[in-house]
Design a protein that fits this description.
- Strand 1 (61-66), helix 5 and strand 2 form a beta-alpha-beta unit.
- The chain has a 6-stranded parallel β-sheet, with helices on both faces. Strands 7-6-8-9-10-12 form a 6-stranded mixed β-sheet, with helices on both faces.
- 45% of the residues lie in helices and 16% in strands.
- It has helices at residues 4-11, 15-23, 30-43, 49-56, 74-90, 104-112, 131-136, 160-173, 186-189, 194-210, 223-235, 251-260, 277-282, 294-310; strands spanning 61-66, 94-99, 118-121, 141-144, 154-158, 178-182, 213-217, 242-244, 270-273, 288-291, 319-323, 326-328.
- The chain is α/β, with parallel strands linked by helices.
- GO terms for molecular function: DNA-binding transcription factor activity; transcription cis-regulatory region binding.
Length: 337
């Protein structure tokens, strides 16, 4: 791996001159600077984060602030992380994972220590304590999620309202007049993340427009809670029942409970769930899913961040982008009548 000494030899300058070109601490002639830059490119020399920060006040590191909550399905979170990291590399940036334990103080810390150029925040709550800080940081901040008040913030997320509306429309088209939504587990509901309310609002809007009934029933990770919700749904339904389960953690439990009631998805009951395409196809009965397009949301979040950095943009900024969702049909739903 080449060093600054190698760059100095290739450029025919002192090693200190290379440091001055990188740090900008002393004036360097244009001719000498170009010689050093040519040597850096020729040797594919990569200065460490500290040197890069001095050179352009940049570290080329993006902080990704993630809540690690044991009850949450971390597989879905890691879908975002992997795409964010790979997209960042395409823009010559690295990712620094920052746990959410410190809350707003953690944002001040990573920005104050100048270890990243910008922050991407995930799992945004309605009244998120980090947001007053995020609005006033001197680095770009991009939110994956939408708070109750998005003013002065850059936000991107899947269009959960569209997802809820399309799910109800899809099942109503298949002939269902009563549609039961099994809510997210309490660990999610208690955090008051905005996507839950947007999804539920979408289901209610579609129900009113189509003249069907939507039941909102408790979710959870235990069989007893899901069994109780399923039985309430069946008792309230005339004709073939239909379920929407946006929480990935309950898919297997729901399938087993329906089976124990003698109900086969796609034959006696319709089920729209949430799962990656691979897992959906691997189900005993391939699962019709709400595609919330986490990869596209992740890519767009990084691209927005890099655009802000490229333009030397410092807060506050304001924009809101919703990525359209789609229903991917498989075998777990009845076909339109």
């Amino acid at each position: 791996m080449p060093t600054s000494k190698d760059v100095a030899l290739a450029a025919g300058v002192a090693q200190s001159t290379v440091s001055y070109v990188l740090s900008g601490k002393r004036p360097i002639s244009e001719k000498t600077r170009k010689k050093v830059e040519a040597a850096i490119e020729q040797l594919t020399y990569q200065p460490n984060a500290g040197a890069r920060a001095l050179a352009g006040r940049r570290t080329h590191v993006i902080g990704l602030v993630i809540p690690f909550i044991p009850e949450l399905e971390m597989g879905s979170i890691m879908e975002f992380v992997s795409v964010i990291a790979s997209t960042a590399r395409q823009f010559d940036h690295d990712i620094l994972l920052v746990t959410d334990d410190e809350g707003a103080a953690g944002l001040h810390r990573v920005v104050g220590q100048q270890i990243c150029d910008g922050l991407i925040l995930m799992q945004i709550e309605d009244e998120d304590e980090r947001l007053p800080v995020a609005r006033n940081l001197n680095v770009p901040v991009v939110l994956i999620g939408i708070p109750r008040d998005p003013s002065g913030l850059v936000c991107i997320d899947a269009d959960f309202e569209m997802a809820g509306e399309h799910s109800v429309r899809d099942l109503a088209t298949a002939g269902h007049s009563v549609i039961s939504v099994i809510n997210w587990q309490p660990a999610v509901m208690d955090r008051h993340v905005n996507y839950v309310d947007r999804f539920m609002h979408g289901t209610d809007v579609a129900a009113e427009a189509l003249g069907v009934t939507v039941l909102h029933l408790p979710g959870g990770t235990d069989r007893a809670t899901i069994s109780e919700s399923v039985d309430k749904a069946l008792a309230s339904t005339t004709g073939k029942p239909a379920f929407i389960a946006p929480d990935r953690t309950i898919q297997d439990i729901l399938r087993r409970i329906l089976g124990s009631r003698g109900l086969t998805p796609g034959v006696d009951v319709s089920v729209i769930g949430s799962a990656s395409p691979t897992l959906a196809e691997l189900q005993p009965i391939p699962l019709t899913t709400i595609d919330l397009r986490p990869a596209e949301v992740s890519r767009r979040a990084v691209k927005i961040m890099c655009e802000l950095l490229e333009n030397d943009s410092q807060g506050p900024h304001e924009s809101l982008e919703l990525v359209p969702t789609v229903i991917t049909h498989r075998s777990s739903t009845l076909r339109p009548q």
